[in-house]
């Protein structure tokens, strides 16, 4: 089982749209996939029309993987399940502070799912606290969307520095450019600059596109509602680029 986190320190960069579309594409490719919505805004849950339990169970989330099993919801798509977020998830940083081995806690919980899923995708809130560090430890790979602007460039630099200072493997990071506007020279300049500084940026770029914005209206991934649109094709290309490191070896050989 692989764990893929969709993470950014900055909100509004297309993180959740990426998690939602990659989850569908992974399931469509044959991987038994679980999308865990860790963001209390619950946008990923909304896109999949999955509602959380009426009673808040956030205090039990990190206690045992059996609690996760109780809250797994089937989506309307084959091989794709969802654990929806609740408002109680906003207390995860505080909850982890009171637990031992808090950096390893998420990895310990997710390990219990290894016989049930090929891929777990984490849609992460834009925070940099105990939860983020637990995510950095648990994830095999971290998809990090970066808008090609000065502020997003600084945010990505901060993330790199944090990994260096806390000895997290930078090879886990898979940054890519998101909400790209091809007509803006600033976007092109920033992308060229960052690619010169780092060879880890994926080749695929996700455009600023109305079809992606309309995902909320359709409550579907854009790869379902508009697969031949610019956004749909871009996410398909992103999946094709990252699939080789996420798919089980047997499937890669097929």
The strand order across the widest sheet is 3-4-2-5-1-6-7-8
C-alpha termini separation: 18 Å
Main sheet properties:
8 strands, mixed
Overall structural class, as computed from helix and strand content, comes to alpha/beta
The average pLDDT value, as a whole number, equals: 92
Shape: globular
Number of separate helices: 13
Kindly describe this structure.
There is one protein chain. By secondary structure, this protein is an alpha/beta fold. It has 13 helices and eight strands. The protein is 44% helix and 15% strand. The protein has an eight-stranded mixed beta sheet, with helices on both faces. α5 (102-111) packs across α6. The radius of gyration is 17 Å and the shape is globular.
Provide key terms for this protein.
254 residues, 8-stranded mixed β-sheet
Write the layout of secondary structure elements.
Elements: E1 2-6, H1 15-28, E2 33-37, H2 43-47, H3 65-70, E3 73-74, E4 80-83, H4 92-97, H5 102-111, E5 119-123, H6 130-138, E6 141-146, H7 150-165, E7 173-180, H8 185-197, E8 205-207, H9 210-213, H10 215-218, H11 222-225, H12 230-246, H13 249-253
Parallel strand pairs: 1-5, 1-6, 2-4, 2-5, 6-7, 7-8
Antiparallel strand pairs: 3-4
Helix pairs in contact: 1-12, 5-6
């Amino acid at each position: 089982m692989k764990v893929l986190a969709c993470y950014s320190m900055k909100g509004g960069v297309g993180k959740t749209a990426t998690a939602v579309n990659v989850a569908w594409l992974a399931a469509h490719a044959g991987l038994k996939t679980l999308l865990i919505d860790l963001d209390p805004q619950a946008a990923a849950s909304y896109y999949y029309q999955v509602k959380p339990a009426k009673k808040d169970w956030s205090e039990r989330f990190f206690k045992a993987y059996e609690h996760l099993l109780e809250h797994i919801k089937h989506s309307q798509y084959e091989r794709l399940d969802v654990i929806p977020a609740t408002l109680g998830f906003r207390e995860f940083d505080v909850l982890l502070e009171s637990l031992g081995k808090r950096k390893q806690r998420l990895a310990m919980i997710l390990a219990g799912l290894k016989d049930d899923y090929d891929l777990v995708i984490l849609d992460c809130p834009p925070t940099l606290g105990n939860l983020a560090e637990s995510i950095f430890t648990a994830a095999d790979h971290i998809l990090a969307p970066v808008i090609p602007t000065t502020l997003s460039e600084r945010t990505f630099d901060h993330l790199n520095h944090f990994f260096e200072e806390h000895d997290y493997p930078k090879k886990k990071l898979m940054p890519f450019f998101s909400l790209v506007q091809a007509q803006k020279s600033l976007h092109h300049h920033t992308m060229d600059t960052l690619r010169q500084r780092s060879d880890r940026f994926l080749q695929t770029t996700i455009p600023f596109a109305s079809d992606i914005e309309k995902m909320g209206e359709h409550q579907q991934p854009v790869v379902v509602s508009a697969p031949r649109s610019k956004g749909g094709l871009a996410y398909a290309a992103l999946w094709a680029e990252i699939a080789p490191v996420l798919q089980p070896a047997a499937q890669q050989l097929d």
